[in-house]
Amino acid sequence: MNEFFQQFIAGLKATTPLEFIAVVTGIASVWFSKKENILVYPVGLVNTIIYVYLSFTQQLFGEASVNVYYTIMNVYGWGLWSKKDKQHHHILLITHSSTKEWMQQIAFCAFFYVAIFAGLSYLKQDFAPGAIPWADAFASSTAFTGMWLMAKKKVESWYWWVLTNIASIPLYFVKGYVFTSVYYFVLLVLAFAGLAEWLRRSKVKQHYATGKQFDLAE
């Protein structure tokens, strides 16, 4: 435990201002997503762009690929969440995945796991010495799936975020990003809270008696 604590303190001291900003904006972004607040996306863009830069400078290509994807999906999700009907009610509502959609999600995740694992295994020796292919591939593929489903406001996105965060806590710690490891622990707690909140919101009646949408977005 003493060695763990010393490594933790050393990691915190080594945390750069950029990493600190990325962590703070990342936590804020997940908080906004829990609240179904569209600020999740502009705040999330700050987080992902910083992590793209940090990951490339440290040759952490698995993490870099995830954050490039996050950046693209932040723009995509921002567009989807912004759409409103003629009465200015949000069109996209929180929903559950069908069995068919679950199968699509699993296939989506499996495809990216295999692709990322193969790519990092090939690159590890010469270009990505810090990679841990099986762990990076798992964290990345579940994150890809979670972000895709978050853009579509699917409750199940939170299950994938839980898996991502569980994998990322030890992954970043062993790579020396202790503050980021703690960040993923906070995100794990928020993911469980977000799941509970979206389950509650999905059960709320989505239409008034007049047929107008019941907008829970803040």
Low-confidence stretches: 212-218
Order of helices and strands: HHHHHHHH
**Separate helix tally:** 8
- Binned, the helix content reads over 70%
Radius of gyration: 18 Å
Q: Kindly report the average pLDDT value.
A: 86
Distance between the termini: 43 Å
Total domain modules: 1
Overall 3D shape: globular
Q: Which class best fits the helix and strand makeup? A: mainly alpha
Total DSSP E strands: 0
Strand content: under 5%
**Main β-sheet description:** none
Could you give a quick summary of the protein structure above?
The protein is an all-alpha fold and 218 residues long. The chain is 72% helix and 0% strand. It has one domain.
Descriptive tags:
0% strand, 218 residues, mainly alpha, disordered C terminus
Structure description:
The structure is a single chain. This protein has 218 residues and is an all-alpha fold. The chain has one domain. The chain contains eight helices and no strands. Helix 5 runs antiparallel to helix 6. It is globular and about 55 Å long.
Helix/strand layout:
Blueprint: H1 2-13, H2 17-34, H3 40-57, H4 61-82, H5 99-123, H6 133-151, H7 157-174, H8 178-203
